[in-house]
């Protein structure tokens, strides 16, 4: 019988605890609400594990005997943050093999230049940092640091807050949404050295707080959709490539939609948009919304009839002209879905609800893009913030 699919979930330290966790879960489809089982927990990524990355395993130096997950610790309780290399055991357990102190507040990583280097976005440290990686994939060497002082008009924008690192489809550019500065910072990559050089950023609406973004393609045209945490909007740009990376990229706005689609919110709603993902088939975008609980979902405890207030996940179909067409607003299963991730074939979406400390798995129709029934649920130790599917 085939082994169960694994999920790795990072989570902040719970109250009165010293360390956060990276939890290994096994999921066996068809078993209903009991399908998720915790098999191990790793506590070697500090107090605030916040992002997991296994991209290197799929790169040009892949080895079955050397499979790593990389975890960044935001460094809430220490002088420095850290970049941690965790080795996967055959049973899915993790063990630390290397740690590098880095600038405070890392919240996202991105391998680039054929996995020869990694870029890190620092929310708390108002910075971007880059590192080269050893041939065996275990250790990193510091390459570049970029620090910023720009800030925006809202209280949440008291400083530059770089929130994500994103590679473009050609592999020639890295983009970094800066929530504090209302910019998407753009850099080109030198393939010979992995060094980054800045290009003109995208100026986002003042006070909108760009958080994350995703590239997508339609009929040979490349688009970039940026989700804005403070404005609760998604802005889509047509991307034009110059003849050389020295000239950078050109971005033309083609669409702007609410992260709630056509759903009207209460007058006192104070939403906080979070994640944006392209579906595996490239036909839909899904976004998560926090702090406005528009649904009540069934309690997964069969002995408890009290319904659970739920934040939302919005689905949009991708139009031929770069516009987003609203499809559905569905529950995330709990409060504050900071992150979600679809499995490889797009039939399941896993949502990490940060304030209710839980993980919900939802069935997903790949033809319509709509979410259906909840097929699995589990509590997580500490507030969860990232999900990594392992479907080997």
TrEMBL record:
Signal peptide: none annotated. InterPro entries: Cycloisomerase_2, Lactonase_7-beta_prop, N2O_reductase_N, WD40/YVTN_repeat-like_dom_sf. GO terms for molecular function: 6-phosphogluconolactonase activity. Pfam families: Lactonase. Belongs to the cycloisomerase 2 family. PANTHER family: 6-PHOSPHOGLUCONOLACTONASE, 6-PHOSPHOGLUCONOLACTONASE-RELATED. This is 3-carboxy-cis,cis-mucoante lactonizing enzyme. It comes from Pleomassaria siparia CBS 279.74. The lineage of its organism: Eukaryota, Fungi, Dikarya, Ascomycota, Pezizomycotina.
């Amino acid at each position: 019988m085939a082994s169960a699919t694994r999920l790795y979930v990072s989570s902040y330290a719970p109250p009165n605890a010293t360390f956060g966790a990276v939890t290994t879960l096994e999921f066996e489809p068809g078993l209903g609400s009991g399908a998720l089982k915790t098999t191990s927990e790793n506590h070697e990524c500090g107090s605030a594990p916040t992002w997991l990355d296994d991209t290197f395993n799929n790169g040009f130096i892949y080895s079955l005997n050397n499979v790593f997950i990389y975890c960044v610790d935001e460094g809430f309780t220490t002088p420095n943050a850290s970049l941690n290399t965790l080795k996967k055991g055959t049973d899915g357990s993790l063990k630390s093999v290397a740690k590098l102190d880095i600038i405070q507040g890392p919240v996202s990583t991105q391998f680039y230049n054929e996995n020869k280097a990694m870029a890190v976005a620092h929310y708390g440290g108002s910075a971007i940092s880059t590192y080269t990686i050893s041939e065996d994939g275990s250790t990193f060497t510091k390459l570049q640091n970029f620090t910023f002082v720009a800030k925006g008009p809202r209280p949440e924008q008291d400083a530059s807050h770089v929130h994500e690192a994103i590679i473009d489809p050609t592999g020639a550019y890295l983009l970094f949404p800066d929530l504090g500065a209302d910019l998407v910072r753009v850099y080109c990559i030198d393939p010979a050295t992995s060094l980054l050089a800045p290009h003109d950023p995208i100026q986002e609406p003042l006070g909108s707080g760009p958080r994350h973004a995703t590239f997508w393609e339609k009929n040979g045209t490349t688009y970039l959709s940026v989700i804005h945490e403070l404005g609760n909007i998604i802005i889509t740009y047509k991307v034009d490539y110059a003849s050389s990376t020295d000239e950078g990229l050109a971005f033309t706005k083609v669409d702007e939609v609410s992260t709630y689609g056509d759903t009207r919110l209460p007058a006192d709603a104070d939403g906080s948009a979070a994640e944006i993902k392209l579906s595996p088939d490239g036909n839909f975008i899904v976004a998560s919304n926090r702090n406005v609980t528009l649904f009540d979902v069934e309690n997964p405890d069969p002995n408890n009839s009290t319904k659970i207030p739920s934040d939302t996940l919005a689905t949009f179909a991708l139009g031929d002209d770069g516009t987003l067409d609203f499809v559905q607003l569905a529950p995330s299963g709990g409060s504050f879905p900071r992150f979600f991730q679809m499995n490889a074939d797009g039939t399941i979406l896993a949502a990490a609800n940060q304030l209710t400390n839980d993980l919900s798995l939802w069935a997903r129709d790949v033809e319509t893009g709509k979410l259906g029934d909840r097929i699995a649920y589990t509590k997580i130790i500490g507030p969860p913030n990232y999900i990594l599917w392992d479907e080997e």
